Amino acid sequence: MKRFASLFSALDQTTRTTEKVSALADYLAGASDTDRLWTIALMSGRRPKRTVTANRLREWAAEQAGIPLWLFEESYPIVGDLAETIALVLPAPKGSSSRTLTEWVNEIRSLAALEEDGRKTHILNAWDQLDTPERFIFNKIITGGFRIGVSQKLMTRALSQATGIEEPELAHRLMGKWTPDDTTFSDLILAPNPEADLSKPYPFYLAYPLDTAPDDLGDPAAWSAEHKWDGIRGQLVLRGGAHHLWSRGEELMTDRFPEFAMLADFLPPGTVIDGEVLAWKDDRPMPFAALQKRIGRKTVPAKLLKDAPVILRAYDLLEHEGNDIRALPFTHRRAHLDALVAKAPPEAPLRLSPLLEFITWGDLAADRARSREIAAEGVMLKRKDSPYRDGRRKGDWWKWKVDPLVIDAVMIYAQAGHGRRANLFTDFTFAVWDGATLVPFAKAYSGLTDAEFREISAWVRKNTVDRFGPVRSVKAEHVFEIAFEGIAKSPRHKSGVALRFPRMARWRKDKPATEANTLADLKTMLDAYV
Q: What is the enclosing helix (H) or strand (E) of 376?
């Protein structure tokens, strides 16, 4: 645990990628196989389930520190992180421990089988053996909130340095539904069995945003283009007589979309398709809100299957007849995909994402401008000779999204952030006018610079009208331009609308609150784009 805590500190104290990679590679090269496996698991989101509630940890920490609970509660928002607050308020440990990361993780997981008094005893004993950095790690794991400023790509690079295995191969080996309970470091990384997990997807290839016209990309004839659809990016895996659907976030979603089971009747085993899951009716995409109703469901009732049927809009073919074909040029993979999809009957929930015909970049710009008419977000550009790579890489794939919708709104509520932003107000609620009344319609927490967050936070402290727990009601004075990707009806919101990906585009210091947009303006947008 001491080595892992030191690693965490080293990673937390630098923003340089090379330094993070070096620190992680050194750790992975020298750690035991079980600690390496748990390190990879923790850094890729495979955390143990929470075994103790946050309220109990607060109470026990205050008791162990000899302070009233109210003082702990006042300290928490200042620090901004529960695990760190606990680590800081506890008295110095009476002992020390040489237990490994794996041993402490197993200790934490064993608490699930204990009664509350037993859990408390184990946790107080642990706190009394760990120093402050180790306590912080222990608390992070026990609350189920362990996160670290290391991307999957960075971790793969470090693992490559430590093992000598190429990054793309490691990225693929780390995919899937493995846990430290059902594999070993050797089986997962050093000598994987390709038959061990037939559901394993490939790492997703992610496009970089194109912020200007694609004129600098060279000859348009070297590129293919298609619409960028607004759904859930997913991989359909057909192997071993079964089908599996994975989201880009490595979440297995098979049971939420049972329609895709029939594709196993028409597509051969050894097929992996990259595409977009879309709610689809009357031969066009439904609003994302319709698809969202199915995302959080473990089982889907018949009514929802009828109200929001889905298809897979196929983008690419990654595995064909059991062979990994990602190294082939896009045009070759696309030809295989076209032939494969042609075998499926019209009633099958599978459609090609059509390639757009264009000669000049101006032609493509015109297609992009019409995107919202067909419920698309813009266009994707893919170099015709590009392989299917892993992660986000510049050069071969670009996403050229339509300009966001924007509306000017008044900030009416503010809430402090978490972690490093615990001392700043970063989460805001915005409203538009309905006659003389301000109606809240969106929340946003991104888009401002650090300096702007500090400025608006100072203003909030001086202009608070009322408090509702952590939320402050403020004077209706400041106008912000809110950018968003889409708009849909929502009976759950007072405004009657819900926005897709709202964020603060700019602070309109030039505009008084009386000139902000109205609810009627929002509903006009709704009529135009739904």
A: strand 376-383
